[in-house]
Structures are given as C-alpha cells and as structure tokens.
Amino acid sequence: MNWWSRRAEHGTAVAPSLLSADFADLGREVARMESAGADLIHLDVMDGRFVPTLTFGPPVVAAVRRRTALPLDAHLMVAEPERHLAAFAGAGADAITIHIEAVPAPGAALDAIGALGKRRGLSLNPGTPIAAVLPWLDRVDLVLVMSVQPGAGGQSFQPAALDKLRALAARRAASGLGFAISIDGGVNAGTAPACRDAGADILVAGSYLFGAADPAAAISSLR
After folding, report:
1. DSSP annotation string for 192-220
2. CB 37 within 8 A of CB 219
3. 29 occurs within a structural domain
4. Average pLDDT for 39-68
5. Which of 39, 44, 47, 73 is flagged as catalytic?
6. Cα–Cα dist 203/193, whole Å
7. Residue 4 resides in a domain
8. pLDDT digit string, tens, across residues 9-28
9. Alpha carbon of residue 184 to chain centroid
10. pLDDT, mean of residues 61-78
11. Enclosing domain of residue 87
12. Would you state the torsion angle of the CA atoms of residues 176, 1, 135, 43, taken in this order, to the nearest 10 degrees?
C-alpha cells in the first residue's frame, strides 16, 4: 500500500497544499507539515492564463524537493501543460497532474508524463462533467476532483464534488483499475468525512492545515 491509496491499511492520505504556506519561510513550512504527518505535498502551479492567478514554477518545486523526502504532486493549472512536463519532472516532482479542460484529449500528455517516470494525474473543474475523464481512467494513476474553482485558496467546498467521487469510486471498482481519487478545495474537518465516505483516497488541504496552530491535530482530524 503506497501513498496513492492508503485507505485499507492506514486511512486516507493527506496532502498539504503549498499555496497556503508562508512563502517567506517555505522550508520551515514544508518541514512543519512533514513532521505533522503529511503523506505528500501538493504543489499548485498556476500560469495566469488557464487560471487568473500566477504562482510558481519549477525552481520552487526544486527548492521544495531539496527540503523534503515526501512525494511531490505538481498540479499544473496551466495552459499547454505539455510544454512544461519535462521541466517539472526534472525539478523533482513525483507526480504531474494536468487538467482535462486544458487538454481535452490528454492521451499524449499522459503518456509523456509516464515516459518521464512520473505518476500521471488528471484533474477536472467543478463545472466539468465526470464523463470528460472517464475515457482516460485506464491511463492515469490519479484523478483529482476540484471542489472549488481553481485559481485561489480559501474558497468554500462545493458538495456536488461528492457525486464525482462516488462515480469515480464506482467506476474503479467495476473496472478493476488502480487509480487513486483525490479531492482539492475547501477540505477541512467538517467536509472531510463526506469526502472519505464518497471514496476519496487523498485529501488536499491548504489554509486548514497551514493556518492550524497544531498541524498534527489538523491532519489527524482529516483522517
């Protein structure tokens, strides 16, 4: 059992989202989450095109890689993600997640991520129907369901995401596939139980974890 799907043995995995960290002291923030029991670090990469916000690129990923042994999932909320796959792989990302809205036919991009030796992730926005990702489930290692509109932290959880989690869990069980199911946006102690019950393997949380006085207790509450 690995960090992609820990439910049976250890419970749901928790992935702090770096977007909510204090960037003036990023190394300390990453270490704080690692010591609190995080399973992986979620890296929200935004280009100012696919989403209005501009965040960071491969140099920050490389800096985080030097400070932690935790797996890193680079969530590329960017236009033309195919242009950047090698750079994020070279920076040390263990997984690269792209958006179905940015690449409606993502087969070649997913194959390229796999050829780089990285886990292949596919994400969908709240307004995108689950049908958009179903044809690609046999070519991914992770499906990331957005429960807020990507582009900014601190938004409220959209309960419609739970239906997508259930649909993905049902399709996975019926097909015998092994992809993990992740959810990102508005995840906290109040919303986490419903996410777990709906089939989420990985809970991505930003402000709830980085803003916590006791991150270990916050991580425990999500599990």
Report:
1. HHHHHHHT-SEEEESHHHHT-SSHHHHHH
2. yes
3. yes
4. 96
5. 44
6. 10
7. no
8. 557 999 999 999 999 999 99
9. 6
10. 97
11. 13-222
12. 170
CA 136 to chain CA centroid, Å, is: 17
Catalytic residue among 39, 47, 184, 201: 184
Answer yes or no: are the C-beta atoms of 149 and 126 closer than 8 Å: yes
For the question of residue 197 being annotated catalytic, the response is: no
The gap between the terminal CA atoms of the chain, to the nearest Å, is 16
With a cut of 90, say whether residue 3 has pLDDT above it: no
Active site residue 44: yes
Residue 67 resides in a domain: yes
Name, in order, each residue with C-beta under 8 angstroms of 74's C-beta and a sequence gap of 6 or more. Answer: 43, 45, 61, 88, 91, 93, 95, 96, 97
Any idea what the CATH number is for the domain that residue 31 is in? 3.20.20.70
Backbone angles phi, psi at 116, to 5 degrees: -80, 0
How many domains, in total, are found in the chain?
Answer: 1
Q: Would 5 be classed as within a structural domain?
A: no
Are 136 and 106 spatial neighbours (Cβ–Cβ below 8 Å)? yes
Nearest residue to 183 (alpha-carbon basis) of 131, 223, 143: 143
